[in-house]
């Protein structure tokens, strides 16, 4: 489950409006070596196989 506050949603939408070729916010879980996993959030386009979640007026992409 992903939750986001109204303030965070508005900030994300504003940030996406000033970037080119952006369709939503990507949340990634990456292998992190001996420290375990690392987590990343970037503005990105949808990729094949992504799960798309609509939250408060914008899209969130989650890798398979």
The number of helices is 1
Q: How would you spell out the order of helices and strands?
A: HEEEE
Considering DSSP H and I runs of 4 or more, what fraction of the residues is helical?
Answer: 10-25%
Shape: globular
Provide the gyration radius in Å.
13 Å
Q: Regions with pLDDT < 50 over 5+ consecutive residues?
A: none
Strand content: 35-45%
Largest sheet: 4 strands, mixed
Distance between the termini: 15 Å
| Structure class | alpha+beta
What's the total number of strands? 4
Short key terms for the protein model shown above:
alpha+beta, 4-stranded mixed β-sheet, 4 strands, globular
Strands, helices and their partners?
Elements: H1 6-17, E1 24-31, E2 37-44, E3 51-55, E4 58-62
Parallel strand pairs: 1-4
Antiparallel strand pairs: 1-2, 3-4
Describe this structure in words.
It is a single chain. With 64 residues, this protein is of the alpha+beta class. Helices cover 19% and strands 41% of the residues. The protein has one helix and four strands; from the N terminus they run αββββ. The protein has a four-stranded mixed beta sheet with strand order 2-1-4-3. The model has no long low-confidence stretch (mean pLDDT 89).
